[in-house]
Amino acid sequence: MESIPLPIRFDHVSFDYGQRPVLTDISCSIAGHSVVAILGKSGSGKSTLLELINGIVRPVSGTVHLFDRPLDYQQIVMLRRKIGYGVQNTGLFPHLTVGENIGMPGVISGAAADTIHTRVTELLELVQLDRSHITKYPHALSGGEQQRVSLCRAMFSNPPILLMDEPFSSLDYSTKRHIYTHFQALQKASPRTVVLVTHDWEEAMLLADSFLWIDQTRLRASGDRAALSAVKDAYLQQL
Amino acid sequence: MIRSIVIAICSVLALSAVGQPVLRVGAKHFNEGYILGEMQALLLEDGGYNVERKFSLGGTAVCFEALANGAIDIYPEYTGTIAAEILRGAVPATYDSLNIYLKAHHDLHISRPFGFNNTYALVMLKTAASRYGVHTISDLRTQGAINLGLSYEFLKRQDGWQALAPVYGLQQRPVGLEHGLAYQALRDGSIGVTDAYSTDGEIEHFGLVLLTDDRSFFPRYEAVSFYRSGLPEGAIRQLDKLTGTLTAGEMQALNAKAIFEKTGYGQIAYDFLVSKGLIQRKTDEDRRTSMWSDLVRHTGEHLLLTVIALLVSVVVAVPLGVVVYRLPMASRAILYVTGILQTVPSIALLALMIPLFGIGALPAVIALFLYALLPVLRNTISGLTTVDPALKKVAIGMGMNRWQQLRYVEFPLALPVLLTGIRTAAVITVGTATLAAFIGAGGLGEFIVTGLALNDSTLILRGAVPAALLAIVIELLFEWIERRVIPAHLRRRSL
Fold this sequence. Notes:
The complex is a heterodimer.
Chain A: E1 8-17, E2 20-30, E3 35-39, H1 46-53, E4 61-66, E5 69-70, H2 76-80, E6 83-86, H3 98-108, H4 113-126, H5 143-154, E7 161-165, H6 173-189, E8 193-198, H7 201-207, E9 210-215, E10 218-224, H8 225-230, H9 232-238
Parallel strand pairs in A: 3-8, 3-9, 6-7, 7-8
Antiparallel strand pairs in A: 1-2, 1-4, 4-5, 9-10
Helix pairs in contact in A: 3-4, 3-5, 5-6
Chain B: H1 2-18, E1 22-28, H2 31-46, E2 50-57, H3 60-69, E3 74-78, H4 79-86, H5 95-106, E4 108-110, E5 120-125, H6 126-132, E6 149-151, H7 152-156, H8 161-168, E7 175-177, H9 179-187, E8 194-197, H10 202-205, E9 208-210, E10 223-228, H11 233-240, H12 248-260, H13 265-275, H14 284-287, H15 291-325, H16 328-343, H17 346-357, H18 361-385, H19 389-397, H20 402-432, H21 445-454, H22 457-485
Parallel strand pairs in B: 1-2, 6-7
Antiparallel strand pairs in B: 3-10, 4-10, 5-8, 5-9
Helix pairs in contact in B: 2-13, 15-18, 15-20, 15-22, 16-18, 17-18, 18-20, 19-20, 20-22, 21-22
């Protein structure tokens, strides 16, 4: 057996808001350099599972491990800078230009301005966005373009782990297909651990190597693409 | 910006420290108060003293408080007012007994009387008085149909209506009104009787008659100089020149000049003193104080009050807003307190400052600051709380620390709302600062307050128009600032 440390491991993790349980006794792990989809209907707790990884919420019981170490909440701010994070509806800052949005992870870690600029142009090229967009504000871009900018920002620091919370859910079908190819190309060029929260079975099937299915606060199923294929009917039925 | 203000304040302090001590002359904001205060000021200047005029003070209480605290050194007052209103009847209203008591208890002095007795009186139109057959105050007892409209001060004073009514057995229920409006109300018949000072310039002009005080209710109100201990001997000698120089008829004529000939009170005082040979005639250039230099000075004072109060409120309210926005309980409590401050009428808030901070610019700035606090604080908090939670989450998830979240995300996104708050505060402050004249802080209110006292609408407009223009300029300035710092798509639609 290889002894490569597992990037993410949940050990009997539970979370609740007082009376209302959100996640119950989740134990599972996520393999390195792969895309894992967290599936579930809305309100199933799948976003919370994601937020446990970068410490936006902390488990009520159980432990979250990153690279075989329990998450150190004293160091959480520094840790988050090594984890890319993207959310639904892009989460771009409306008061900052495209360039400033993408470069923000660099700014907060104290990177030099020209280093940031170089990285920003490099990332834009990667997702095939024109350089002229750098000085525009996000609202001037189309939904698909905004999503690509958001992807660039999440990958700015070349993080080993990328967390994405329903990043593509507000896009129309053809834009989605377009973004998927960008995403796949990026993942192929430099594979990293991607945790993708989605309610869309097809999206998971297309992008993910494995899946976790959260249903009524519990882990209902998990496995590789074959397993995902097997639960299709059950999953679509409960949606 | 802040550095230049500090430098300006320091240089003013330094100047006043090396120069001769400045004697500060106060005056109540009514005609005769201005004229007598101006006479005192001119006499002191003639004696070689530097004089600062702190006219337009709100009333007896404000003047006395200011004198007792050392915010002013001299002001004209009346013996009856000192005895009844200030000393609450502790001593009779004679020169000797007042002086002994004031020296012992307050370390203050009065001069010998100027000569006239400006007593309170109830007045009617001559025509109405003869129609009803009313000649004395006692006659009013049987005339229930005659409306009484009395000044607010007279209604409240110890020696006013509350004491007068039982002495004469008067049953009427008087209405309160601004003294400056009472004569007009008499003339158009909406009131039948009002209180007046026996030296009021309007008495002759409007054909009024004084009702005889047949029960000798009113004490004597002899005008005197009321001053602090430690005034230079020479200054006291200058003030004493007024002793026995003014008859009631002369005073009535001087007051009438101010009201009906619209002569400036400075001019009236000067002409009188020169005609009596009490001061040297000055050359024209010496005394030509142009309207423009007054306007510039008062506008400058007004802006300074506004800017300092606003800056301080921003410096205090914005960080306070940031701190409490994360603590919902604290923010609610603080908003309540500042909200209550806002409901205190501005003139009352200014008056409340006097016992704490005296008179002048300091209490005015403090009161204006308290007023500006709420809009800035409220908008800081609401600006921060309305930031999209998803964006806050992204900021946290990206690895921003508290300060970075505030600096790069929350604060810039709250800025449009915050700026609106500062803008509201600025406009409120410019408006409220016109009231600062009542406590001797100067500003454009100086014109308005004086104009109100003289019933001179030109003078009122001279203060009101620039104040309104200032408010517009501030609006435009903030629009410009918003255009500079906020991207177009995030700007709030403003009215």
